Amino acid sequence: MRLLIVSGSQRAQSQSAKVAKYMSSVATGYSEVSHIELCRFDLPFWDGEPESKSGEGNPWTMISYKVRRADALILITPEWGGMASPLLKNFLLMCDNQDTAHKPALLVSVVSGISGAYPIAELRMNALKNNKLVALPDHLIIRNVTEVLNTNASLASASLDGEQEIECKFESKREIDLRARIDYSLHMLHQYSGALVEIRNRHDSTPYPKQQEYCYGM
Predict the structure, then answer these.
(1) Residue 66 burial by Cβ neighbours in a 10 Å radius (0-12, 13-18, 19+)
(2) Distances from the Cα of 129 to the Cαs of 9, 32, 53, 57, 169, in angstroms?
(3) Which of the listed CATH numbers 3.90.1150.10, 2.30.42.10, 3.40.50.360, 3.40.640.10 matches domain 2-214?
(4) Is 37 helix (H, G, I), strand (E, B) or coil?
(5) Tens place of pLDDT per residue across the chain (218 aa)
């Protein structure tokens, strides 16, 4: 099974990308884990026409290939003004439900303060209707994100002879609990990944009569 992590910040070297890289490093059980940082690609804003996804130099061909191959997705968005990022919403608009339908998605909100719930509510309410991604009941909100999931902190402390360096690793209870929660969420995503493979296989092998009439959500 393959996992695709999509970070939707519009800034390079973002906290969303940092969270994505951490989750990539601890996701287990997948034959392949890929990370797409949307701000590094010059994606056009989708105008509803198929032609906007194609064209010379358009990176969507590569991105859609990764989406199509994935068995599960992690969607990471910063909270800006209480909303999910335009880049992530544009990505979801461009996704073809032939590539995303009946695949599990773990929703992750990243925020520098203590909020972060609004992007999750927004994505659950109106971002998954037509692409038919299946959002897990559990989600993650990474609050005060600059303070967590960082490289282990260290202090250089001189010994009596002034030559020895001592590395001190700091992990608060909050950090430990957060990492444990991430591990749990990844475990559940892997469980859904395996279960929904069977659903997609049945959907292909024994389709509902005229199922294309219901290709859009209600």
Answers:
(1) middle
(2) 22, 27, 20, 29, 44
(3) 3.40.50.360
(4) strand
(5) 999 999 999 999 999 999 999 999 999 999 999 999 999 999 988 888 888 888 778 899 999 999 999 999 999 999 999 999 999 999 999 999 999 999 999 999 999 999 999 999 999 999 999 999 999 999 999 999 999 999 753 333 333 344 443 333 557 999 999 999 999 999 999 999 999 999 999 999 999 998 889 988 88
